[in-house]
Amino acid sequence: ALRWLCALLLALPGAAGVCSQPPRFAFAEPVSAALQSYAPGAVVSYRCLPGYAKKAGESPDVTCLADSTWSRKSAFCTKKPCGPPSIENGDFHTQTDLLFGATVTFTCQVGYRLVGPPSAQCVVRNGEVSWDAVPTCEIVLCPPPPSIENGQLLDRNEKFTFGMAASYSCNKGLSLVGEATIFCSIGRGFQGVWSSPAPECKEVKCKDPQVKNGKKLSGFGTEHTYGNQVSFECNPGYSMKGSSVVTCDANSAWTPPLPTCDQMLCGRPPELPFGTPTTAVGDSSPLGTRVMYRCIPGYEGAPGRSSVITCQSDATWSAPDPHFCVPAQCPSPRVQYGRVSPGRYFYRTWDTVTFSCNPGYALQGPRSSTCGADSRWSPPLPQCKKVRPCPMPPQVANGNHNGQGQAGFTMGMSVRYTCNPGFYLVGNPTVSCRASGTWSQPRPRCEG
């Protein structure tokens, strides 16, 4: 009984010197059915699974080692290649390789459409690897080009494939409206469609175009049919609104509409800080208009500066000289035998000066004057006259004056007259000594 127990323990997995079931490989399987355990030195052989091939020089065997493990093995089977798939007028694309299990996608050349699945896989079929399905690329066909009235199709092909052209012409005297040539192209679902509708043949005549205040640059004939173009330019002094080129369209009308040539006008002349226009100018002025400015009171034109601006060919005013008006000046006042205060070399508008005379001279005129906007002193300058003594005041019959006993009389001095008893005074009772050395007139008189 002890002998049977020892034999049983040796047969258990993991027992010393005993290997469990052989390793599993994704690419191979044991040639014979696997046992529950293997004695040291036991060998298990493998064969490659379908889709795999044995590597040259590699053994497909594993051995049970004395430590109850199987000998290590590297991959001894490799994937079989399917080879490049063949698709006429197309190509394939892959992100890996072309070995067993790989997947490729297909595309067609321009003008062809894919018929069949868009991808294929390298699979085992009848013991060999091959692509499970390869589509085809068929050329795109367009339906016959449409016919047109009063015209004909120039191409007589039975089939129209991608890229082929169909051209049309019209009967004599008619214009072809649309595309004279249309092309077979690809539409939705990779179906063949024509690039544009068939053209029309119709009679098109546009009137001879004329633009007021302008002239033609091209298209000088008087008869114009579909597609004819005419270009224009405006006369000097006018600007164009609209397109300079128009085309005769299918409705016998010019498109875009004919342009207009509008007179070029300058806006209001610019405002200057110290000047105003000499003539009335509105909100618009034709080219060549000249505007002259005059300086406002207190200012005068500077020598060598222009006061004229002109409406230029670009409908803008020429730049005015901002410095042609300068503050007005009065000449330095001179009073012979007198003095001016304050004394300066020049005086600006609204400056005021006062006057005084030298000793022995008397002021005749205003004591002050102001520089006016017209560069003149206002009031006019005074004079300093030499002072002359007056003689004794004249006698008045039946009267007397209070200057009796006075040694002398000079300008500005005055005397007062009174009448004797029984008489009364007629006239101004006072007379003054004037700069001329004479007494003011008239003198009074005493009447009784």
From TrEMBL:
<dbReference type="InterPro" id="IPR051277">
    <property type="entry name" value="SEZ6_CSMD_C4BPB_Regulators"/>
</dbReference>
<keyword id="KW-1015">Disulfide bond</keyword>
<feature type="domain" description="Sushi">
    <location>
        <begin position="328"/>
        <end position="386"/>
    </location>
</feature>
<dbReference type="Pfam" id="PF00084">
    <property type="entry name" value="Sushi"/>
</dbReference>
<dbReference type="InterPro" id="IPR035976">
    <property type="entry name" value="Sushi/SCR/CCP_sf"/>
</dbReference>
<dbReference type="InterPro" id="IPR000436">
    <property type="entry name" value="Sushi_SCR_CCP_dom"/>
</dbReference>
<feature type="domain" description="Sushi">
    <location>
        <begin position="140"/>
        <end position="203"/>
    </location>
</feature>
<feature type="disulfide bond">
    <location>
        <begin position="390"/>
        <end position="433"/>
    </location>
</feature>
<keyword id="KW-0732">Signal</keyword>
<feature type="signal peptide">
    <location>
        <begin position="1"/>
        <end position="20"/>
    </location>
</feature>
<feature type="disulfide bond">
    <location>
        <begin position="419"/>
        <end position="446"/>
    </location>
</feature>
<keyword id="KW-0768">Sushi</keyword>
<feature type="domain" description="Sushi">
    <location>
        <begin position="264"/>
        <end position="327"/>
    </location>
</feature>
<protein>
    <submittedName>
        <fullName>C4BPA protein</fullName>
    </submittedName>
</protein>
<feature type="domain" description="Sushi">
    <location>
        <begin position="204"/>
        <end position="263"/>
    </location>
</feature>
<feature type="domain" description="Sushi">
    <location>
        <begin position="80"/>
        <end position="139"/>
    </location>
</feature>
<feature type="disulfide bond">
    <location>
        <begin position="357"/>
        <end position="384"/>
    </location>
</feature>
<feature type="disulfide bond">
    <location>
        <begin position="234"/>
        <end position="261"/>
    </location>
</feature>
<keyword id="KW-0677">Repeat</keyword>
<feature type="domain" description="Sushi">
    <location>
        <begin position="388"/>
        <end position="448"/>
    </location>
</feature>
<feature type="domain" description="Sushi">
    <location>
        <begin position="17"/>
        <end position="79"/>
    </location>
</feature>
